[in-house]
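Hey, weird one. I pasted the Phosphatase sequence into the form twice and got a warning about non-standard characters only the second time. First submission, copied straight from the form history:
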Amino acid sequence: MSTAPGKPAPTRDELRAHLVRTMIAGDVATPRQNNLLHYRRMAAGHPYYQFGLELKPSWTERTVLEMMVERCGVSPDPGHIYGDDTIDPDITIATLEAMGDRIGLAARRREDVVVATGHPATLTPLYQGVARALEGAGCRVLTPAGGWTYEIETGYGGSDLRRLVYAEPGVAMLEGEDGRTHHTHDPHPMEAMLRELADSVSERSSEAKPDIWPDLAIADHGWAGAAGQAGIDTVGFADCNDPALFAGAAEGKIEVVVPLDDGISAHHYAPLTAYILDRAGLAPSG
């Protein structure tokens, strides 16, 4: 199914069927062995798999798997080592509704919001739709640290430059020296955004608080992890091989995590966008 601007949001049953048909949820194409490897590395405290969150050291591969069964719907069978894994579409829908509720609250309060993605090739239109709706409701979509750069290692001793850029109306992402947007797990860009905002301290403020600070972050990967770690209300998306945000939700640092395959063709997420906005009371009229 497709949902064009101005079209009604799908019903819950229609959305569930769409999620399963497109493999956004249900039987997904994420290898089980990749999931288990990531669970093991997150539990071991590997920074790349913690997404900028300072997680409790008590996680083990077993407890991560148990948590992912509960919060994502992966197979509970510890003997399932090879093949593809699963995401429970009913959990996806329930968390989409919770995300919509929090976004609707932001709209009613006219909150300041940051929006960012580590999956620009697939999730950008979804984020843009939400950001435009919030902006139309009177929220301020913040765009700090535009143009900030840092180097990443590319292997074999090489490096590449990454630049923080924004897609209209304010979706943060990374661009490479080749001018293309790039996938990232890094928390560093969100940390740079928050540093710039934290440096904006009013001289009149006796409490030395930032003049502008996000009330809500809508993000994924390290962008979401860094925001949640900073104490910002954070809602976002995560695949079944990215346990850190789910662990952050279990620890109370992330408000909502929607489980989904985050590498599906961008147009397949349009019904999700419509469902979120309808739930938030921001569905376009007409």
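That's the output from the first submission. The warning seems to come from a hidden character in my clipboard, not from the data itself. The domain at 91-280 is CATH 3.40.50 (Rossmann fold).
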